[in-house]
Amino acid sequence: YVTKESQYSYEHAIGLVRRLEKNQSIKIVVAEDSQAQQMFITSLLEQHLYQVITANNGAEALAIIEQDPSINLLITDYNMPQMDGFELTKALRRKFNKSELIIIGLSGVEQKTLSARFIKNGANDFLCKPFIQEEFHCRVTHNIEAQEQLNRIREWAYHDALTNLYNRRYLFDKGLELHKNARKNGEALSIAVIDIDHFKQINDTYGHDVGDKVLIAISSLLTSSLGDYPIIRMGGEEFCIVMPNKCNQDAYDIIDQFRDNLAGKTIVADPRITITISAGVASALQQSLDDQINAADKLLYQAKEDGRNRTVK
Ligand code: GH3
Ligand code: MG
Ligand code: MG
Ligand code: MG
Ligand code: MG
């Protein structure tokens, strides 16, 4: 027999355990010149199983965070030698936005205006010293949960709902970044555009639900074979693959191998369905990402013209 209260406390306890498990992977830098404060804050955080790295001034904290982009949160005092909390916050905001790095400023009661100035300089939140432990934990947890939520939403926004592949928004955000980097460093980057052959017939013969199953099945095959590269569902039955460090011939070989393997496979068991794909591979980096995708599209069109189930480079 479970009472409402014991049910509540059970769920509460499970929630706490999950939180503590997550905390073990969260890295927090504590920048404090007062050894006593530094030890106190560190012990509060370690009670909740966070990984804590201490810094004795702003310059030290800056160096630590610049070297380790996996750090989630900085708790920083205002008054410190070498570099104060504002300078530190300003310097970090040039590199990390508010969801990449949470900054919580600390300020003494005798300096009431510091909290607002911390926020203006880019801090996510602030705490007045001395604080009570409960408020400290609430602020830390609240900010971390907001960061997690934002990252989750960002992930959703980058994915296609049917296939869970990346979507166009991802392509024109992260894909563009890959393209820019390749151009800047003079490295190869190939773009493949893939389209299922006669897909309309599958819908017309078996219905839209089976068509969807085919799209899901091919997406998981793409992921298991070509998962090293970002795979984007462009819409419908068309996919785009961004292949950094692959010249035209290498990219062609990889895509054509996939095409060849797929042509002999049963992709959906009941009803038994086999499909083929056509693909175009473009690698001329002097073009913009858009132009390179269009070039791959033209080559895809040629593959269709030439009889489908083939790759054109
Ligand atoms: P081709 O070999 O020339 O590419 O022929 P095709 O039939 O594959 O090309 P077409 O562009 O004529 O048809 C694509 C079809 O894809 C039409 C559309 O109904 C279907 N389609 C687009 N999105 C979805 C989807 O999310 N689910 C399903 N089941 N079908 C879709
Ligand atoms: Mg100080
Ligand atoms: Mg098609
Ligand atoms: Mg078509
Ligand atoms: Mg199409």
How would you describe the shape? Answer: elongated
Total DSSP E strands: 10
Strand content: 15-25%
> Helices and strands: which structural class?
alpha/beta
- Assembly context of the chains: single chain
Small ligands present: 3'-deoxy-guanosine-5'-triphosphate, magnesium ion
Distance between the termini: 68 Å
- Main sheet record: 5 strands, parallel
The sequence of SSEs as H and E is HEHEHEHEHEHHEHHEEHEHE
The level of helicity is: 40-55%
Sequence of strands across the biggest β-sheet: 2-1-3-4-5
Poorly predicted regions: none
Keywords: Phosphoprotein
Domain GGDEF: 187-313
Modified residues (4-aspartylphosphate): 77
Catalytic activity: 2 GTP = 3',3'-c-di-GMP + 2 diphosphate
What does this 3D model show about the protein?
The chain is an alpha/beta fold and 313 residues long. 52% of the residues lie in helices and 18% in strands. The chain is built from eleven helices and ten strands. The strands form two sheets. It has a five-stranded parallel sheet, with helices on both faces. It has a five-stranded mixed sheet with strand order 7-8-6-9-10. Strand 3 (73-77), helix 4 and strand 4 form a beta-alpha-beta unit. The mean pLDDT is 94. Bound molecules: 3'-deoxy-guanosine-5'-triphosphate and magnesium ion (4 copies). One magnesium ion (MG) is lined by residues 195-197, 199, 237.
Task: Describe this structure in a few short sentences.
This protein has 313 residues and is of the alpha/beta class. It is built from 11 helices and 10 strands.
What topology does this entry show?
Blueprint: H1 4-23, E1 27-31, H2 35-47, E2 51-55, H3 58-67, E3 73-77, H4 85-93, E4 102-108, H5 114-120, E5 125-129, H6 133-157, H7 168-185, E6 189-196, H8 199-206, H9 208-226, E7 231-235, E8 238-244, H10 248-263, E9 277-282, H11 289-305, E10 311-312
Bound molecules: 3'-deoxy-guanosine-5'-triphosphate and magnesium ion (MG) (4 copies).
Residues 33-34, 77, 79-80 line the site of one magnesium ion (MG).
